[in-house]
Amino acid sequence: MQLLYSYQQLFSFSKNIFLKIGCSEANAETAAKVLLSADLRGVDSHGIARLSGYTRLWEVNRINANPNISIVHETPSTATVDGDKGLGLVVAPAAMQIAINKAKNVGTGWVSVKNSNHFGIAGIHAMMALDHDMIGIAMTNASPLVAPTFSVERLLGTNPIAVAIPAGGEAPFVADFATTTAANGKLEILLRKNLDTPSGWVQTKNGEPSNSAAEVRNGGALLPLGGDKEHGSHKGYMLGSIVDIFSAILSGANYGPWVPPFPAYVPMPENMPGEGIGHFFGVMRIDAFRPATDFKEHMDNWIQRFRSAKTITVHQQVIIPGEPETAMENERMINGIPLVGPVVNDLKELGNKFSVAFQ
Amino acid sequence: MQLLYSYQQLFSFSKNIFLKIGCSEANAETAAKVLLSADLRGVDSHGIARLSGYTRLWEVNRINANPNISIVHETPSTATVDGDKGLGLVVAPAAMQIAINKAKNVGTGWVSVKNSNHFGIAGIHAMMALDHDMIGIAMTNASPLVAPTFSVERLLGTNPIAVAIPAGGEAPFVADFATTTAANGKLEILLRKNLDTPSGWVQTKNGEPSNSAAEVRNGGALLPLGGDKEHGSHKGYMLGSIVDIFSAILSGANYGPWVPPFPAYVPMPENMPGEGIGHFFGVMRIDAFRPATDFKEHMDNWIQRFRSAKTITVHQQVIIPGEPETAMENERMINGIPLVGPVVNDLKELGNKFSVAFQ
Q1: CB contact under 8 A, B250 and A295
Q2: Which residues contact B139 (CB under 8 A, 6 or more apart)?
Q3: Residue A132 sits in the same domain as residue A30
Q4: Are residues A169 and A37 in the same domain?
Q5: In a shared domain, residues A295 and A250
């Protein structure tokens, strides 16, 4: 069963919860906006469903509600940022703003972040660049659920990559994807419906192919994009590795099997080599390469050509990355955001705990 | 049947052919070195087997042997380069050098290139950064052989991405992969052996799943990494699209279905929106983020942890990207480079045409 809630209602609730754990007014607003952008864009696993998870991290002192987000190393086009254990939802926009400012000065800006936490959906951070006629890139590492090709051990997170590119009359191109065959949120949906996964999504804890949506809970692993070697999983493994290295080895965060888990009850890994989780952001000014009007004219042409491609069936056209999410955002802003029963119950409990009404 | 040829022998032959079409001494050396790096690293489809193809492009006036490679737009961290119809084998190293110089000055360098041609393997260009303690990134678009998810039309090339990352005592991490399930060269090998492809590599000209290695020759298409939507092909499609946009829409090259074909006998697309094919290069100085010694120590730790992962079988350890290619390079430099009969015959004919002996 699903109930519909207005964006404003969920935004106010989330913001009030962030205020209760001690965030400043500005940080609570930013955190609520970033968190809710996932619900608006249809990535329900990364939105308000995670709100109580963030508060539990705060309870075990793994999140600092008032971080001093600072640049610890920089050049004209780069910075390394210490997130000071802040909410990733707040650290990431601050780091993107640094990248945007550097791009204004020297054409591009590249920021690697340590000592952060889960930052919500990658796409919303990449999209910060769009208003400035800039291309935005965002990626993050995450706790290990993914087995590299040939491995039974889980050594990588779902390590998403997002790239947002401005267009002219057309909506921007926004790609945002986990570097696995399927994101963990997709497994959770199948598990709730008691359905099997397609092949190539997961393996057992011994590395055997599996179709069980419960496999990751049972010690198995998600698989890199491609599924197995024959279908290119070494490419998904390489992509996830690049995200890990850019996010954490450049910055000094934890990497590979040492990335801290999101659930507060899961023990931290031993012998951690860095601080917190890592992100990586990039911003490129369009007019650092060519006039923005020329670029946008050709982006529109690209989008229109791909959208009008001859397709396998008349019922399904080629999808321009970002279009379904933008359509969903517009629809949910008007009609409301659907929440499933367990999430509603969780939010009511959370409201009771912090004395914030959830209607 | 395969014959072994020494690197030096094939290098001299290639260099002499490039001299015969009018390249300068320096450009002929660079082109031969880049071309042969594919043979050394085991990417036989992109090496000396393509030498006669380059000369045929020169014969139809699609390659300028003496290009004036120039910066047409720039900022401190970016440049747009006009390759002046030069060999991609020569244009790419020139563009990477510009990126390296910019990284020396402001921390990173990002170069988009138009009006170029096929540049060999992406990895060798990315690797130029390694000697400077920098991370190198190289990508290129290519003529359309790939159908986006749901499309029957071929709108993208195999659009590879390469990322080279320095390590300390360990060999560098070098990822270099087409954004399709399998590169076209893999199909050619199966075709030669009269073998079928695995599922998810190709589709027929009507968009039906197929296992025929001849499908692309028959008007069918290669598939984006993932194979089909259920297995994440929209992610491969997004990756290929990002490569296309960074390489060609930022620079003013041709994109999507308009990218010129490599075979000189294939007619050029109509209504081309840009100039030549496009590449994109990035360079990041490690010490623009943290001291290089710290970074390398953690890269070594990352590599050792992944290499020693518990694996599914004892016969196959987790592969560190770049290690098999480095091993093959060392082996072939000593024992020679194997060439199949048809390639040997093609090179003999080429030698006859240009009066360069091929023993």
Answers
A1: yes
A2: B122, B159, B160, B161, B162, B243, B246, B247, B279, B280, B281
A3: no
A4: no
A5: yes
B144: helix, coil or strand?
coil
Task: Please check whether residue B236 touches A, CB under 8 A.
Answer: yes
**Residues facing B70 on adjacent strands:** B82
Measured between beta carbons, which residues in chain A are less than 8 angstroms from residue B173?
241, 245
**Rounded CA separation A359/A12 (Å):** 11
The confidence score (pLDDT) of residue A330 equals: 97
Q: How far is B27 from chain A (nearest CA, A)?
A: 26
How near does any CA of chain B get to the CA of A144, in Å?
12
Kindly report the nearest CA distance between residue B285 and chain A, in angstroms.
Answer: 9
Which residues in chain B are contacts of A318 at CB distance < 8 A?
Answer: 148-151, 155
Query: Which pLDDT value is given to residue A2?
Result: 77
Weakly modelled stretches of chain A, pLDDT under 50: none
Instruction: With beta carbons under 8 A apart, name residues in chain B contacting A227.
Output: 231
Within a domain: residue B99? yes
Tens of pLDDT along A87-102?
A: 999 999 999 999 999 9
Give every CB contact of residue B131 below 8 A, 6+ residues apart in sequence. Answer: none
Q: Pick from B73, B77, B234: which is nearest to A77 by CB? A: B77
Check CB contact of B175 with chain A, cutoff 8 Å.
Answer: yes
Kindly tell me if the per-residue pLDDT of B1 is higher than 80: no
- Give A261's contacts (C-beta < 8 A, 6+ positions apart): A143, A268
B85 and B48 both lie in a single domain: no
pLDDT at B2 over 90: no
Specify whether A228 is located in the same domain as A132: yes
Contact B165 A289 (CB under 8 A): no
Are A229 and A250 within one domain? yes
In a domain, B276, yes or no: yes
Has residue B188 got a pLDDT over 90?
A: no
Residues B151 and B236 in one domain: yes
Helices H / strands E in chain B, number of each: 10, 12
Q: What is the pLDDT of residues B44-100, one digit of tens each?
A: 889 999 999 999 999 999 999 999 999 999 999 999 999 999 999 999 999 999 999
pLDDT digits (tens, 9 = 90+) for A187-222: 988 988 899 999 999 999 999 999 999 999 999 999
Binary contact (A148, B309; C-beta < 8 A): yes
Domain range for B2 is 1-65+325-359
